[in-house]
Amino acid sequence: MLTGKQRSYLRSLANNIEPIFQIGKGGINDNMIKQFNEALEARELIKVAVLKNAMVDTKEVCHEAASLVGAEVVQVIGNKFVLYKESKENKVIELP
Hints:
3 helices; alpha+beta; globular; four-stranded mixed beta sheet; 4 strands
């Protein structure tokens, strides 16, 4: 579980990154979960955009994705959300 201070720090880091994944009307599938895991291992922090044609709520998709990959939800704003998962091999982000 992230503390408020850690979440705030991760939000500040996420400000400068662009969404690297988009979730459309197909929702979340196994291939996307695999890609999320690989990206989180490489970057630790990813931003995802939910397209307007997706028939799902951004918050629901965010929490579903986080539970499937074992990540922490950093924030959900509009149609974007940010996930954090500590990397096992290439740890870059030092939490306060």
